[in-house]
Amino acid sequence: MIRLLIGVLFLAPFVLLSVSNLDPMTVWFVSFDWHVITGKFILAVTILSLLMGFFLGWIGELRQRHRARRAEGQIRSLEKEAVELHKRITQLQTEPSSTPSETSSQPPRN
Fold this sequence. Notes:
The chain is mainly α. The chain has helices at 2-20, 38-94, and strands at residues 24-29, 32-37. A two-stranded antiparallel sheet has the order 1-2. Helix 1 (2-20) packs antiparallel against helix 2 (38-94). It is rod-shaped, with a radius of gyration of 36 Å.
C-alpha cells in the first residue's frame, strides 16, 4: 500500500507535466525516428522507469525471502537437534551409574 502511494505521488507531477506539454517532437534511435507528443513521451518513460524499479525491487525481495526461508529451516533443524541432545542428557542422568566390575573387588589369584 505504501509503494502504491509513493508511486502515485511520484507520478502526479509527471502527469501534470505531460498534460501541459502537448507539442510534437521527433524521437530517434539509431536509424528509426517517430513523431510523438512530448507529454506522452515523458509519461511513458516515467511509467516504464517506475515499473522497472518495482520489478528490480521485487527481485531483491525474492532473494531476501529465499535466504530467510533457508535460515528458518536451519533454525528448525538446530532446534530439533537441541531437543534430542537434551533428551539424551536427561536419559544419561537418570540411568543408574554402572558399578565397577566385581572382578576388581576380588583378591588376585596366585
